[in-house]
Amino acid sequence: MTQWSGRAEDARIRAELAASSSRFESERAQVMIDGFVAQAMELGIAPEPLRARTFSGAEVKTDKVGWYIRKNKSIAVGTDGGYYQLTVPGGSGLMDRLRGVRLKATPPPLVVGRGGRDGETGDLSEFLDRVLDQKR
Fold first, then answer.
1. Dihedral of CA 91/108/106/117: which sign?
2. Which tens digit of pLDDT belongs to each residue from 81-111?
3. Which of 22, 82, 100, 123 could form a disulfide linkage to 78, CB 3.0–4.6 angstroms apart?
4. Strand 48-54 vs strand 87-88: parallel, antiparallel, or unpaired?
5. In the chain, what are the domain boundaries?
């Protein structure tokens, strides 16, 4: 085995471990989100139609309803248990605003805003609790 193949193997192993860790984190976060959705429904916290912002700043409707969990409305949890980032590609034209966008859920993190620069970072549980506290 050459030095290069050893390094490549080490890199492959590190990538597999990181992916496994990320999947485990998302599974734990999804359990929290599922509990949140059940509690929000039980408490009667009404979901609302979710809106997204395009990269150019235009607000567009989406095909989902749920609860915004960030104050700036850039992340939401749908009634379907999906974790949605609400900044989407697209122009600022009238057709984009009328047609809206189809959201795809992303794997949820345990820490919201990790690596972000806007200052609203924290444990997912804190963001979910803030929504639930509105009705408690």
1. positive
2. 999 999 988 765 666 567 788 999 999 999 9
3. 82
4. parallel
5. 3-133
